[in-house]
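Look over what follows to help learners.
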Amino acid sequence: MRVLLAADETQLAVNLGHALAQAGHSVRRVLQRDFAAASSALDQELAIYQPGPAREPAWDELRRARQRGVTLPVLVVDQQLNVADRVRALDCGADDCMSAPLAGPELQARMRVLHRRCSGVRIPVRRHGPLVLDKGGHTIYLADASLPLPLTLRELRLLEIFMEQGSRPVSSKQLGDRLADGAEPISANAVQVHVHRLRKKIGGGPVRIATLPGEGYRLEAVPS
């Protein structure tokens, strides 16, 4: 796998680079502050991002990458990521998070999951009323008007799940299990963050993500 490792000069970054190379991955190292520009490269398949101790500038850099339209899957890895760090990372565009010290097999498994989501496109286009999801282009269309919305992999998968469900509600636990795709289940808090971000992106259109107390969420038409 062609991996972009965005981290400053820390022992964790050195260890990560060595472990990735030993596992047979092609690793390109960049400094954290250069991530937004470097992640636009077309030859990368996955990014591993280490925020380091200066959390807010790191999250800003991650957000800038997403705002530039970068859809590269991003795995955030750092020492002692607490719940607030994980939520912040996900809210700024990360697809998954891991805390160090790392278990090598788990790191490889999470990388495989993210890569599988990116490359294993099963249905290029899916429709739900006026909503058209182009998985290959990570683009949402409403009727004939294209919305320039770069979706993260999890937002893409989340929207696909809602469209598969049709009018049937789906619970937070079901969403967490399906987003995890065989890896560690995603918490209800993380699911709520992803739903909130996706809801903002499709806001103002003819469909919305409704919250159904005691049942979960459902994609439905906005009353005219």
Observations:
- The two ends are 47 Å apart (CA to CA).
- The chain has a mean pLDDT of 81.
- The chain has eight helices and eleven strands.
